[in-house]
Structure formats: structure tokens, C-alpha cells
Write a structure and sequence with these properties.
D-Maltodextrin-Binding Protein, domain 2; 5-stranded mixed beta sheet; 335 residues; 2 domains; alpha/beta; 11 strands
């Protein structure tokens, strides 16, 4: 009898402990105070998308679950220009966007996407991680947007479906897709091509059907969209190194207390460092994959690249006459 009583007592203690444990676990769960949207137009495995997920993970972790950020990849919330417009009235909370459409709203950003501005990747990050980069992050007053951190997007190069681009004369008359950006249109015209502004998700079919002869983008974009299937000539000229930005809507920002703003900025910076590492790896593997398919890759010799540079020099005066001092400072960082 004593044995049965003891067994029942132990059984009861186990049940109480289990119930107590479940109750304790439930009290740890926190209902989020905010659930925010994040717009990203790239695929799930793309470095910028993975950076966005890292950002969301860090914010949720460091706020103890009070702030949750839901990442919407593959352009489900609209193209970049549409997303920027939505952010200006709080329709979208966070996003990663390219400077090209963003410069339509913050013209000073045109400086950072001028063709052939940098000597290479190291030069660009020296600029963006320093005082010049900070000044740009703080130049969004009046835009209804708040800049958080820079993301890498590599160097943009030309690719075509009709012929390889080996010299400046090859550009003449070619229909080249560009982002919806006045500056990008101007660059194509300066090089002798016809600019065709077009949404990113329309490029594959436009190349396939001959609506355009070519486009320009970095290695990961060229590979991940399979544009190499319909445009087998890739010319490395690195005409622009356009960084990208993580942004938050001003309307969303104003809802947050200073403590949460500081956490979000810190997480944005940490996710930027994470994304840059992913970008370097992805750029290398994308190039290897494309070359393995048999695509023709052209590397412009220095003297021919200098001719491309010379063709676009007038753009600096046209688009950045007010910012000559900033351009001079950026150039000086590369010497």
C-alpha cells in the first residue's frame, strides 16, 4: 500500500511539474507591439533578401519580440518606385531599394551612381563607410523616408542578345533596358544607345522577343533571373557601382520611441555587414555559373573603357553641377 501511495505521489509531482513548465513557457511568449512590412523585389535566396531576413531576425531578437518585421520578397508589394511611393505615406514600413529610382525623390543621390565614379569595390566602401556616406544617409529630410544602412549591389555591366559589345561603336542604336531613372536614360544616350525604361520583371520576355537588344546589371542579377539564357553576351565594363539602401517610412519611424529607433539602426548596420559577405560569395558563384553555360564574356581593355568614360563625362555637369565638391571628395578617396 505504501508503495502504491508513493508511486501516486511521484506521479502527481510529475504532472504538476509538467503543467507548471507549460504555464511558464506560455508566459514567455510576447505579443508583438508592432508588425511591420518590408518590401524586397529580389528572389528568396538573393543576398539582399537574405540581408532583409537577417535584419528582421535581429530586430525581433533585440526587442524581445515586441517588433516583428515581415519580409515580402519577389516584388509582391510592387516595383521599387511603387514601394517608395507607398512608403511616403506609410503604406509600406521598410524596404531595400536601389538608388536609381530613389534618386527621383532625393536628387543628391545621383552623385553616387555617376558612371565610372569609383576605381573599384574597396574605393566605394571607403566612401560609404566614412563621413561622406554618413552625410548621404542624413540627407533625406523632406522625402518622408529615413535611410538606415547601405547594401552592396556590385558593379553593373552590359549584356546583350544580338551581339557582343566590344567597343563603344557597338552601343550605337542598341535598345538597352534601364531602370526608371532619368540619369540611366542619360547615360545610354551619351553612349549612343536607345534607353528603354522597363520594370525588372519584364526584361526576360523583352530580351526573348526582341523588344530590347540588351540590358545592364550585376552578375547575381544576370544569373538569378536567367537573363543569360536569352542574352548570351556579357561585357564587363563596371560602368556603375550603385549601392542600395535599407529604408524606413518616416510615418513608421515617428511611431517608435528612441530606444527602438536605436535598436533598428544597430540591426540595419549589422545586417549590412552580413549582406556584404553574402554578396561577395554570390557574385563569385554567379559568375562561375554563367561562364560554365558557355556565355561569351568580354572584358573591355583599359583603353576601350577609357573611351566609354570619356563619352559620359558631360553627365557630371548635367546632373551633378551642384555637387562638384562632393564628387571631388569621392574621387580623392580613391587615390
Amino acid at each position: 500500500m505504501k508503495i502504491k501511495t508513493a508511486a501516486l505521489f511521484v506521479f502527481a509531482m510529475v504532472i504538476l511539474a509538467a503543467c507548471g513548465g507549460r504555464k511558464e513557457d506560455q508566459t514567455k511568449a510576447v505579443d508583438p507591439e508592432y508588425v511591420f512590412t518590408y518590401a524586397e523585389n529580389q528572389a528568396e535566396d538573393y543576398p539582399t533578401t537574405q540581408g532583409a531576413y537577417k535584419f528582421a531576425e535581429l530586430v525581433e531578437e533585440k526587442t524581445g519580440g515586441r517588433i516583428v518585421i515581415s519580409v515580402n520578397a519577389q516584388g509582391v508589394l510592387g516595383d521599387e518606385k511603387t514601394v517608395i511611393e507607398q512608403m511616403q505615406f506609410g503604406g509600406v514600413d521598410f524596404a531595400r531599394v536601389s538608388l536609381s529610382p530613389l534618386a527621383e525623390f532625393v536628387p543628391r543621390l545621383n552623385v553616387l551612381q555617376m558612371p565610372y565614379l569609383y576605381t573599384g569595390r574597396e574605393h566605394m566602401w571607403k566612401v560609404l563607410d566614412g563621413e561622406i556616406g554618413d552625410d548621404f544617409l542624413n540627407s533625406f529630410d523632406g522625402s518622408d523616408l529615413v535611410a538606415l544602412s547601405w547594401y552592396d549591389a556590385g558593379a553593373r555591366n552590359f549584356y546583350s542578345s544580338t551581339k557582343p559589345i566590344t567597343k563603344l561603336e557597338d552601343m550605337k542604336g542598341m535598345k538597352i533596358r534601364v531602370q526608371e531613372s532619368e540619369l540611366m536614360v542619360g547615360m545610354m544616350e551619351a553612349l549612343g544607345a536607345t534607353a528603354v525604361p522597363m520594370a525588372y520583371d519584364k526584361v526576360y520576355s523583352a530580351l526573348q522577343t526582341g523588344i530590347i537588344d540588351g540590358a545592364e546589371n550585376n552578375w547575381p542579377s544576370y544569373e538569378s533571373t536567367a537573363h543569360y539564357e536569352v542574352a548570351k553576351y556579357y561585357t564587363i565594363d563596371e560602368h556603375t557601382r550603385v549601392p542600395e539602401l535599407q529604408l524606413v517610412s518616416q510615418a513608421t519611424w515617428e511611431k517608435l520611441k528612441q530606444e527602438d529607433r536605436d535598436i533598428i539602426r544597430e540591426c540595419a548596420q549589422e545586417s549590412s555587414r552580413y549582406e556584404r559577405k553574402l554578396w561577395e560569395e554570390r557574385e563569385r558563384t554567379s559568375e562561375e555559373k554563367v561562364r560554365a553555360t558557355g556565355c561569351q564574356v568580354v572584358e573591355l581593355p583599359p583603353e576601350e573603357k577609357a573611351r566609354f568614360q570619356e563619352a559620359v563625362t558631360s553627365m557630371y555637369g548635367k546632373y551633378c553641377a551642384e555637387y562638384v565638391d562632393v564628387i571631388d571628395a569621392i574621387v580623392a578617396e580613391g587615390k
